[in-house]
Amino acid sequence: MIDIKGGEPGPAGALSNFCAYPFIFDGVCCAGAEGLIQSFKFDDPKVQREICGLVGREAKFRGRERDGAWKKTQKLWWQGQEYDRHSEAYQDVLDRLFDALSGNSDFRAALLASGDEELTHSIGKADPGETVLTEQEFCSRLMGLRSRLIR
Predict the structure, then answer these.
(1) Which of 40, 123, 128, 132 is the most exposed place for a label (fewest CB within 10 A)?
(2) pTM metric for this prediction
(3) pLDDT digits (tens, 9 = 90+) for 87-103
């Protein structure tokens, strides 16, 4: 089992959303996954693009200013489109995020380096009403991507 946490050695750290793995998502340059994830809390596409350029803790802290607002409404946004946090449409956005991230060769190498280990994220939250990306949403997508890459 590999418990994903930023700053850890090997795949445990290399699979953290805090890593700088540049990729393009819907035409927007993202410096890493955390910036894109945090940008979903903001309804202004210009602000979202700015946050997508941030990495790791910087992105996390920038997103914190909107925690109360999105949690109250359970609404998230991307490029002017509103998403209910608990909707299939939002799950589709998350699928697309990880598909886009997998375009980064360094990320793919880190994912493949995890072998066939179960991936966990013990510092993640389980309640979708409290987080933009639950542990289950995160780890299941990573393991699914890994399976597809191996095939």
Answers:
(1) 123
(2) 0.94
(3) 999 999 999 999 999 99
